[in-house]
Specification:
Length: 234
């Protein structure tokens, strides 16, 4: 049976590109309406500068493509809509952006439309581009991605009884747990978990106003990494 591919239009963020065969490129584009799309751009590496360069990572592009029921969709046209020059020109921001995108690629399934993930990612890149503190922003982005993916860590007291004291980090149970409720992991100081809670709650653009101590930030990053690893093992 011959499959009749349907022509579709979208706009999204290029999350990853990779060379394919002699002249092709595969691009992963995050769209609001169709989620994460894996697209085959035939002859992309031979294309004129404008079209080829539009597919660079972190660019916002308009795309026209043939939807296929299985495998890669076929990219027909691509047009550059927006770049983030403030990210490109700063190694720290660029590294942070790519680190965030790696989390997104790991957490977002293909072909699962979720407008929130797209909106969050645009917010994250826009704030980073504007020069907001990268690490707090990245932590806020990752905590939201985890929540959208169904792995929101409990950061508001003990997850079992609500206690506010003597809390430990129990990633395999879902977040903070007090010792009487069986928490046996490493202790988390109130300042650290309240900071993490605020980062998880505040809108990403508002995080620039949050004052976070360097040591608390490092601790928070380590807790979230541990949480993610525990979720992956489940
Ligand atoms: Zn408890």
């Amino acid at each position: 049976m011959i499959e009749v591919a349907q022509l579709a239009r979208d706009e999204g963020i290029v999350l990853r590109t990779q060379d394919h065969a002699e002249t092709d490129r595969i691009a992963v584009v995050l769209t609001p309406n169709h989620g994460r799309l894996d697209l085959l751009a035939k002859g992309a590496r031979r294309m004129e500068q404008a079209a080829g360069a539009a597919l660079d990572v972190l660019n916002v592009v308009k795309i026209i493509y043939y939807r296929r029921r299985s495998g890669l969709h076929l990219l027909k046209e691509v047009e550059l809509v927006r770049t983030f020059p403030g990210i490109r020109s700063d190694l720290d921001r660029a590294t942070t952006a790519l680190g965030g995108i790696e989390w997104a690629l790991a957490l977002i399934p293909t072909e699962a439309p979720d407008e929130r993930v797209h909106r969050l990612t645009v917010e994250f890149l826009t704030a980073l581009d504007a020069g907001h503190p990268p690490r707090v922003l990245a932590l806020g982005y990752v905590l939201r991605l985890l929540a959208v993916a169904g792995h929101r860590p409990h950061l508001d007291g003990c997850l079992s009884c609500g206690a506010q004291d003597g809390l430990t980090w129990s990633p395999e149970r879902g977040g903070l747990l007090c010792r009487p409720c069986g928490g046996s992991g490493e202790a988390v100081s109130p300042r650290v978990w309240r900071t993490l809670g605020a980062i998880a709650r505040l809108p990403l653009p508002a995080l620039a106003r949050l004052r976070v101590e360097e040591t608390d930030l490092e601790r928070g990053e380590a807790l979230v990494r541990g949480f993610r690893e525990a979720q992956l093992r489940r």
